[in-house]
Design a protein that fits this description.
Elements lengths: L3 E3 L12 H10 L3 E5 L5 H13 L3 E5 L12 H21 L4 E2 L27 H5 L3 H14 L1
Parallel strand pairs: 1-2, 2-3, 3-4
Helix pairs in contact: 2-3
Amino acid sequence: MKLGFNLLLWTTHVTDEHWPIIERLKATGYDGIEVPMFEGTPDHYEKLGRRLRDIGLEATGVGVMAGGSAISPDYVQRAGAPTHLNWLTDCTAALGGMLVCGPFHQPLGEFSGRGPLYVAPGGGTVAVGTFTESGCQPLDLLLADLAERSS
C-alpha cells in the first residue's frame, strides 16, 4: 500500500513556495502527494512533476469543476464541463499522474437538490459519502438504476 498527502491543506496551486512542505512530506515517509489543480498550465505541472519524480514522490491530480457544470440544466454551462475536464486531464498527464480525483461533475456548492434514492429492504439507505447526501444527481441516478435492476 502507498500513502499520499493532499496538498489542499496548504494551497489550491502548488508553487516553489510549497517545496519545503513537499520535502517534509517525503522525509516523513509519504509515497506521493495529491496536487491541487485549480489553475495553471500543463507546462507548470510538467515542471512540478519532474521535480517530484527527482525526489522519489508520485503524484495524482485533484480538482473541482470550474468553468461549467455537468449537471446544469443550462446548455452553455454543460458545454463548458468537457473543456474543463480536458484541461484537468492534460494537467494531470503533464504532472505524470495516472489518476485525477475530485468532485468534477459539479461546481462546489451546486447541488441537484435530490437526496439518496434507494432504501434497501429492511430500511438501510445506500449513500456514497457526502455526495448523495448533498444531492449529487449523477450518483443518485446511478443508485436509482442499480436499485431498479436489482428489484
